[in-house]
Design brief:
Length: 294
Amino acid sequence: MMKTEKSDMPDNVRGDLADIFARFNETTRRLEESHALLQAKVEELQKELARKNAELERKKRLAALGEMAAGVAHEIRNPLGGIQLYARLLERELTTPDNLRVIRKIIDGVKSLDNVVEGMLAFTSNITPRPVVCNIEGVIEAAVSYILPQVEETSTRVVCDLPERPVMCRVDPDLMKRAFMNIIKNAVDAMGKGGTLRIYVSSRTEDSVTLCFKDTGPGIPADVLDNIFDPFFTSKDCGTGLGLAIVHRIVESNGGGVSAGNAPGGGAVFAVTLPGLVEPARPRTAPAETCRHR
């Protein structure tokens, strides 16, 4: 029978070695955790860098496109004015129904081209915001009122579901009114007759507020989402493709951001994040849905 030899190592030495091994294992575990955290951080930074590079490339393309569009717009505007003038003169001289029908088609075509030129000039012009602290609800109401004829013609319901506490933002109200008008008009066009557009606050912090414009339309096709804010990109049969591009420029110039997506239950959602200020709660002087239209 084989005898087991006792170790000559003292108990205290064995205890020290066990402690060293335990510390080594703990250090190894912590290093592995740190490595995993660093790896995740590196991947996150790489994604952020790729996003910033893509954004920079987009801005370069838009700048080049803007210069070209500005030149084209100025070249078109002068002869367009002449065509419109002569068409108006012909309208006075030629009064037969057939002639008037043709002339009015010319005038309508000129108006359409003029709208394109206006959009191109608006997109390419320098945007210099004059930010002030304002209640964004008033800006939204002004935007809705401006396009009220189209809202009423399509029987659209626009519901401002804003909180009791005033939504104060530091923006240029005139520029933001134009941006909101374009978003609302885009929603009205997408919904057709009898749709509902709900405007609400999805998030709010001490220095920012996010407004959402959710419609009951068909939503945005997946292949359109990536390009929806690009100039001259449109999925409509008629349109300049500049409305949402102008929204993007205006919101960014005011220190905010805008994104588009689809709601889980259907319809499109545009989220506009703006520099905000938290105001203390106070009683409202108007109902919660002050810009409801039927």
